[in-house]
Amino acid sequence: MPCAAAARPRLPSSITESSRSSAARSGTRGDKGIERVYAPIVTRQLPDGPTCGDAGSMTATVTIRPTTGVRQRSAGPAMVRNLGPNWFAVVMGTGIVANAAATLPLAFPGLRGAATAMWLLAALLLVVLSAGWVAHHLRYPDTAREHRDHPVMSQFFGAPPMALLTVGAGALLLGRDVIGLDAAVAVDWVLWSAGTVLGLLTAFAVPYRMFTGRRSEPDAAFGGWLMPVVPPMVSAALGPLLIPYTPAGQPRLTLMLICLAMFGVSLIAALITISMIWSRLIHFGIPATGLVPTLWIVLGPLGQSVTAAGLLANAAPAGLPEYAGALNAFSVVYGVVVWGFAMLWLALAIAITVRTARTGEFAFTMTWWGFTFPLGTCVTGSTVLYSHTGAYLFGAAAVVLYALLVAAWAVVATRTVRGVVTGNLFAPAR
C-alpha cells in the first residue's frame, strides 16, 4: 500500500569550498600544472519524514561543478604568460639574414644598408623578448617550470643563447657603422660572453635532464634535440671575430683554445644526435606535421661547423700561429666533406617539407623558424669555403642559398606577424 505522506522536501544550501587537485605530470601535454578549482554544492538533509518501505535517513548528495582556474595568476597578456624560449628563434632567424649578407661573396647595391636594418630589427627583438621573458619568469613561474619540464619546449632553451651570440656578432659585422667600432666590440664581448655561458649551461643541463628524467620513447628523436647542443658551436664560430680585439699572449691563446674546445663539444654531441634522428626517420617515418620544420635544424650544426672551422683558421695566425697551416687545411677538407652532407640533408628536408605541404594540413607554428637560421649557417659555411678555396661553386651556392633564406624569412616573418595580431601564437605549449 503506498505511503500516505510524501517525504519532506530538502532545501539546498550552497557551501563553496576551494579544493585544488594536484597537477598531473605529462610527457607530451602542455597543460601540466593546470589545476581545477571545484565548487561543491552540498545539499543538507532535513529531519526524516515518512518513507516508503523502511525508515532511515536521507542520503546527502554532492554535485561537483568544475570551474576554470589555474594555480598562478590568470590575469596578464597571453604573450607574457605563454612566452617560451622558442620565441628567440625569431631573433636568430632575423639576425642570420643580416650577418650572412655582411660576408656574402656577391655584393648588391643597398645590401649592406638592408643588412644593417635587419641587424637593428634583430637587436630590438632581442631586447623586447628578453624583457618579456624576465616578466614571464617573475609573474608566471609555474608556466616557466612547465616549459623546463616539457619534452619539446625544453629543447628550445638553446635559442636564447644563440640569439645573444647572433646579435653580438652582428654588432661587430654591421653595427659598427651605426654605433662605432669601440661600442660594437664592447657589445659583442658582452653578448658573446653571456651567450657562451648560457649555451654551455644548456648543452649540459638539457641532456642531463633527459638522461636522468622521463624515459623517451623510441620514436621521440626530432630535430629539436639539437637545439641545446648547438650553442657552443655558434660560440666557436663567432668567437674568432673577437681575436683581433683580445690582448696578445695568454688571453688571445685562451680564447682560441676555448673556441676549439667548444667546436668539439658541439660537433660530437650533434653527430650523435643526427644519427638518432636519421634512425628515427628510417624506422618510424616522417614526424608529425608540426615537427617537420625541425628537420631543417640538422643543417644548423653542419653549416655552423663549416663556418667555425673556416673562421678559426682565419684567426689562427694571430691566436695559434704554430698550427695556422694545419687549421687552414683542416677547414677546407672538413668543410667540403660536411658541406656535401649538408646539401644532401637540405634536399631531403625540402622534399619532405613539400610532401607535407601537399597534404593541406601544414599549419603555421613557431617551428617554421627552423627554416631560417639553419639555412643561414649553410650560407655562411659556403661563403667561408669560397674565401678559402676561391671555387665559384661555393660562391654561387652562397648566393643561391641566401636568396632562399630571404624568401623563407619573408614568409615566416609575415605569418608570425599575422599570428601575433590574431593571438593564435600565444596558446600554451602542448
Characterize the largest beta sheet: strand count, sense, and whether it forms a barrel: 3 strands, antiparallel
Strand content: under 5%
- Domain tally: 1
Relative helix content: 55-70%
Strand order within the widest beta sheet: 1-2-5
CATH topology: Glycosyltransferase
Pfam families: SLAC1
Family: Belongs to the tellurite-resistance/dicarboxylate transporter (TDT) family.
GO biological process, one term: transmembrane transport
GO cellular component, one term: plasma membrane
What would you note in describing this structure?
It is a multi-pass membrane protein. Residues 13-27 have a biased composition (Low complexity). Keywords: Cell membrane, Membrane, Transmembrane, Transmembrane helix, Transport. Its main location: membrane. It is found in: Cell membrane. The protein has 430 residues and is an all-alpha fold. It has a single domain (77-422), classed as Voltage-dependent anion channel (Glycosyltransferase), CATH 1.50.10. Helices cover 59% and strands 2% of the residues. The chain is built from twelve helices and five strands. The strands form two sheets. Strands 1-2-5 form a three-stranded antiparallel sheet, with no helix packed on it. Helix 3 packs across helix 4 (141-149). The relative contact order is 0.10.
